[in-house]
């Protein structure tokens, strides 16, 4: 057994490529050519394969690190005669010796480029020359698909601007312009299969710009190439080919791996992926408009713009697609009336609560036959008192007791979701329908009030709501809400929790129904109740107990005294 460092091979001159994914961990057994990490520069994403087989002893990199050629990725424990991706006899000598030789780099292989690159005559002024930009070294001899042409004839491009996008089954990469200039002719079309050295397009570039890369990029003697060829070589060298060297010829730029960080198998170039990751955008949500479903930079930009606009309008939800706009007048006469402020506020609150709270609704029926008999017996007294005794005060009283005995229903989640805030008071909101919209005044300390006090307060607050005389304080501090449609009708409904409260009771219209008493059916007045709750806080069992107790209290109002 021996230790073997695995290093970043020649990655086409991409300086400071970022580690975006670790594909192995300490203890893993890896094979030769198995992907170890995914690197991404602003031009390409690439999977770096292992040069040896063995067991990972030590990871030397972490996600987010910036690596250059030669950096150690990890240390393997290898068999003494471990196979490697390279055939150099000197590989066992250590990391430096494993490094793929650079003779296969684009700039060092003038022949392929030279074959492809037409020599172009210099312009009459001598200041600019025509040159052919070929497919650079793309780390494989196989043909790859040309999936996007990013420029048009006549475009002025800057050095480094993307000219075309190539994609193999393992990599997608942009071919940048070797220098500033004008696109004269496009020699390929989308969907073509191209190989290293194939001509892509003809450009007019300044002679000075063309001369620059020669000294910087090409190790070849100047005499070996004419200016146009040198420009082509420079293009290849600069085109951030992901894997020009032998060791990295199989170093696939695995776009799907990169995609995993931003949302699975999406079809996009590395620059777009990088931008999406920086912005924290899940790429699977982006509508692609590029060829073959490719996500373009413009698609990402319009996604972000839409998200921001929707957020400002308060309708973003969780990235939920908007409801399409319809021209209703196309189908008949319409009248458009502005919504009240209250309506719009309620709509926003409802949507916020609906989207934030995982709702469950528990249904039950209370036998309120005795309650109704008692309530009817008090009608005259209610009138004398100048009030009205509906089922609602009984419901308030019963809920106060159920809240006391099931304290989770009287709690709220803390803002960070870490704690539950148990309230030691029992303030219950009551939904009131008004011409202006829905209002929810809050009756305070329900547990401490008599039925008559509650009846008076229901009447008073409902009246104030309808007259729009409620003060803000009278609508704040609720722990729980009752929404009673009993006076209106219906057999059941699912109310929306008013977060940060965690429960709301819906009350529907009582009906006389046959109930089996063990021997025969009896006509009983049954009150349907529906308890919606925040399932982040309340479990089904909690809700079942709350409802059972409520039904039991309403079924025998003597228990309200206990
Ligand atoms: N079953 C049968 N009858 C019922 C009942 C029920 N569950 N609840 C009330 N009633 C009866 C009352 O006893 C009253 O009858 P009488 O006049 O013969 O006594 C009649 O229905 C009307 O009651 P009410 O609605 O005036 O009084 P209330 O105390 O029941 O309710 C209030 C008060 C303010 C809650 C109610 O008027 C209201 O606005 N409800 C609408 C709430 C709402 O819109 N919820 C939906 C919110 S989400 O969109």
From TrEMBL:
<dbReference type="Pfam" id="PF00364">
    <property type="entry name" value="Biotin_lipoyl"/>
</dbReference>
<comment type="function">
    <text>The pyruvate dehydrogenase complex catalyzes the overall conversion of pyruvate to acetyl-CoA and CO(2). It contains multiple copies of three enzymatic components: pyruvate dehydrogenase (E1), dihydrolipoamide acetyltransferase (E2) and lipoamide dehydrogenase (E3).</text>
</comment>
<dbReference type="InterPro" id="IPR036625">
    <property type="entry name" value="E3-bd_dom_sf"/>
</dbReference>
<dbReference type="GO" id="GO:0006086">
    <property type="term" value="P:pyruvate decarboxylation to acetyl-CoA"/>
</dbReference>
<dbReference type="InterPro" id="IPR004167">
    <property type="entry name" value="PSBD"/>
</dbReference>
<dbReference type="InterPro" id="IPR011053">
    <property type="entry name" value="Single_hybrid_motif"/>
</dbReference>
<dbReference type="InterPro" id="IPR023213">
    <property type="entry name" value="CAT-like_dom_sf"/>
</dbReference>
<keyword id="KW-0012">Acyltransferase</keyword>
<feature type="domain" description="Peripheral subunit-binding (PSBD)">
    <location>
        <begin position="267"/>
        <end position="304"/>
    </location>
</feature>
<dbReference type="InterPro" id="IPR050743">
    <property type="entry name" value="2-oxoacid_DH_E2_comp"/>
</dbReference>
<dbReference type="GO" id="GO:0005737">
    <property type="term" value="C:cytoplasm"/>
</dbReference>
<dbReference type="Pfam" id="PF00198">
    <property type="entry name" value="2-oxoacid_dh"/>
</dbReference>
<comment type="subunit">
    <text>Forms a 24-polypeptide structural core with octahedral symmetry.</text>
</comment>
<dbReference type="InterPro" id="IPR001078">
    <property type="entry name" value="2-oxoacid_DH_actylTfrase"/>
</dbReference>
<keyword id="KW-0677">Repeat</keyword>
<keyword id="KW-0450">Lipoyl</keyword>
<feature type="region of interest" description="Disordered">
    <location>
        <begin position="80"/>
        <end position="134"/>
    </location>
</feature>
<feature type="compositionally biased region" description="Low complexity">
    <location>
        <begin position="206"/>
        <end position="243"/>
    </location>
</feature>
<feature type="domain" description="Lipoyl-binding">
    <location>
        <begin position="3"/>
        <end position="77"/>
    </location>
</feature>
<protein>
    <recommendedName>
        <fullName>Acetyltransferase component of pyruvate dehydrogenase complex</fullName>
        <ecNumber>2.3.1.12</ecNumber>
    </recommendedName>
</protein>
<dbReference type="InterPro" id="IPR000089">
    <property type="entry name" value="Biotin_lipoyl"/>
</dbReference>
<dbReference type="InterPro" id="IPR003016">
    <property type="entry name" value="2-oxoA_DH_lipoyl-BS"/>
</dbReference>
<keyword id="KW-0808">Transferase</keyword>
<feature type="region of interest" description="Disordered">
    <location>
        <begin position="195"/>
        <end position="243"/>
    </location>
</feature>
<feature type="compositionally biased region" description="Low complexity">
    <location>
        <begin position="102"/>
        <end position="128"/>
    </location>
</feature>
<dbReference type="GO" id="GO:0004742">
    <property type="term" value="F:dihydrolipoyllysine-residue acetyltransferase activity"/>
</dbReference>
<feature type="domain" description="Lipoyl-binding">
    <location>
        <begin position="128"/>
        <end position="204"/>
    </location>
</feature>
<dbReference type="GO" id="GO:0045254">
    <property type="term" value="C:pyruvate dehydrogenase complex"/>
</dbReference>
<feature type="compositionally biased region" description="Acidic residues">
    <location>
        <begin position="80"/>
        <end position="101"/>
    </location>
</feature>
<dbReference type="Pfam" id="PF02817">
    <property type="entry name" value="E3_binding"/>
</dbReference>
<dbReference type="InterPro" id="IPR006256">
    <property type="entry name" value="AcTrfase_Pyrv_DH_cplx"/>
</dbReference>
<dbReference type="GO" id="GO:0031405">
    <property type="term" value="F:lipoic acid binding"/>
</dbReference>
<comment type="similarity">
    <text>Belongs to the 2-oxoacid dehydrogenase family.</text>
</comment>
């Amino acid at each position: 057994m021996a230790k073997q460092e695995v290093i970043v091979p020649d990655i086409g001159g991409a300086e400071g490529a970022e580690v975006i994914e670790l594909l192995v961990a300490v203890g893993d057994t890896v094979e030769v050519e198995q992907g170890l990490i995914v690197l991404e520069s602003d031009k390409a994403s690439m999977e770096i394969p292992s040069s040896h087989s063995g067991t990972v002893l030590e990871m030397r990199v972490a996600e987010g690190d910036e690596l250059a050629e030669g950096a150690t990725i990890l240390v393997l424990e290898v068999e003494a005669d471990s196979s490697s991706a390279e055939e150099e006899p000197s590989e066992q000598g250590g990391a430096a010796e494993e490094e793929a030789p650079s003779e296969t780099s684009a700039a060092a292989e003038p022949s392929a480029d030279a074959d492809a690159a037409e020599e172009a005559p210099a312009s009459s002024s001598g200041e600019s020359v025509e040159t052919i930009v070929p497919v650079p070294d793309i780390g494989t001899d196989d043909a790859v698909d040309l999936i996007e042409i990013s420029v048009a004839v006549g475009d002025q491009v800057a050095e480094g601007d993307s000219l075309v996008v190539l994609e193999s089954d393992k990599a997608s990469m942009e071919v940048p312009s070797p220098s500033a200039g004008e696109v004269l002719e496009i020699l390929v079309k989308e969907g073509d299969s191209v190989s290293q050295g194939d001509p892509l397009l003809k450009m007019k570039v300044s002679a000075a710009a063309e001369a620059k890369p020669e000294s910087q990029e090409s190790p070849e003697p100047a005499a070996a190439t004419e200016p146009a060829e040198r420009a082509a070589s420079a293009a290849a060298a600069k085109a951030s080919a992901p894997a020009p060297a032998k060791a990295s010829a199989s170093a696939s730029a695995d776009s799907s791996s990169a995609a995993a960080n931003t949302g699975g198998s999406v079809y996009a170039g590395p620059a777009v992926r990088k931008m999406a990751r920086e912005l924290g955008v899940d790429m699977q949500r982006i509508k692609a408009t590029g060829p073959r479903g490719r996500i373009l930079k413009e698609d990402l930009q319009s996604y972000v713009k839409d998200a921001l606009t929707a957020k400002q309008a308060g309708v973003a939800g969780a990235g939920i697609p908007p409801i399409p706009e319809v021209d209703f007048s196309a189908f008949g006469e319409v009248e458009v009336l502005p919504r009240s402020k209250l309506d719009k506020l309620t709509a926003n609150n409802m949507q916020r609560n609906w989207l934030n709270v995982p709702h469950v609704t528990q249904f039950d029926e209370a036998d309120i036959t005795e309650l109704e008999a008692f309530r009817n017996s008090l009608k005259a007294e209610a009138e004398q008192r100048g009030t009205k005794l509906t089922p609602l005060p009984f419901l308030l009283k019963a809920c106060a007791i159920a809240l006391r005995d099931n304290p989770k229903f009287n709690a709220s989640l803390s803002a960070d979701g870490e704690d539950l805030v148990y309230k030691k008071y029992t303030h219950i909101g009551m939904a009131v329908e008004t011409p202006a919209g829905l209002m929810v005044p809050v009756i305070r300390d329900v547990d401490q009030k008599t039925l008559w006090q509650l009846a008076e307060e229901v009447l008073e607050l409902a009246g104030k709501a309808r007259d729009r005389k409620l003060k803000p304080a009278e609508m704040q501090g609720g722990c729980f809400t009752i929404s009673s449609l009993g006076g209106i009708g219906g057999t059941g409904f699912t109310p929306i929790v008013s977060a940060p409260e965690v429960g709301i009771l819906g009350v529907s219209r009582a009906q006389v129904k046959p109930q089996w008493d063990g021997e025969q059916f009896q006509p009983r007045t049954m009150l349907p109740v529906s308890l919606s709750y925040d399932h982040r806080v309340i479990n089904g069992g909690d809700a079942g107990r709350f409802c059972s107790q409520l039904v039991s209290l309403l079924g025998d109002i003597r228990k309200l005294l206990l």
